[in-house]
Amino acid sequence: MGYRVALIAVRGIDADTFYERYGILRTGQREEIAESPVCGATVSTGWELLYLNDYPRPHGELLSSLSDNAELLFCDVNETCMSSFATGWENGKEKWFVFHDAQQARAHLVTDGDLPEEYTSIRDDKLRRQAEDGDDVDHIFDVAIELFASLTGVRYDMDLPDSTGEDFETLKPV
């Protein structure tokens, strides 16, 4: 099977404002692993995080609203078809994106905008590893994921930095 998740990280607004803009409410229930359809967490690296499990993905209009007077990073991961996407928004405007879709080609990688400085070294490392391993592994899949992780400290398939063991609050639609 594999993960099919999306993460939205924002800083510059508090969690309650973030959740209100997204249209979700706190439940007070906590979980160690983000298994509910939508969970939230405050990350020690300074980001408020939404973790979406097979939950409807936000569209550009919502990402614009969420990033109003804030910085937003979004990462969408689909291991079932080996696609990954990351984008950065600020003050309602998309600044950059990185997209990989293995169904188009193993080396497929599309970018646009003013990419963060971390991008080049991540891309170069994954391209080198892809050349070394050939088609046995899809290293390009990790470019968008690693870029999001380098900026937020959060990777979808790992514990949060400085985890307390019950980092995620279950959230529900309004």
Question: Helix- and strand-based class?
Answer: alpha+beta
Tell me the domain tally: 1
- Measured as a percent range, the helix fraction is 10-25%
**With helices defined by DSSP (H or I, 4 residues minimum), what is the helix count?**
4
Structure overview:
- With 174 residues, the chain is of the alpha+beta class.
- It has one domain (4-173).
- Helix content is 24%, strand content 36%.
- The protein contains four helices and nine strands, in the order E-H-E-E-E-H-E-E-E-E-H-H-E.
- The protein has a nine-stranded antiparallel β-sheet with strand order 2-9-3-4-1-5-6-7-8, sandwiched between helices.
- A hairpin with a 2-residue loop joins strand 6 (83-90) and strand 7.
- Helix 3 (118-133) runs antiparallel to helix 4.
- The longest helix has 16 residues, at 118-133.
- The two termini are 30 Å apart.
Name the descriptors:
single chain; about 170 residues; nine-stranded antiparallel sheet; 9 strands; about 25% helix; globular
Q: How does the SSE layout of this entry go?
A:
Blueprint (H helix, E strand, L loop, with lengths): L3 E8 L3 H8 L1 E8 L6 E5 L5 E6 L6 H7 L4 E8 L4 E8 L2 E9 L8 E4 L4 H16 L8 H11 L15 E6 L1
Helix pairs in contact: 3-4
Quick summary of this structure?
It contains 4 helices and 9 strands.
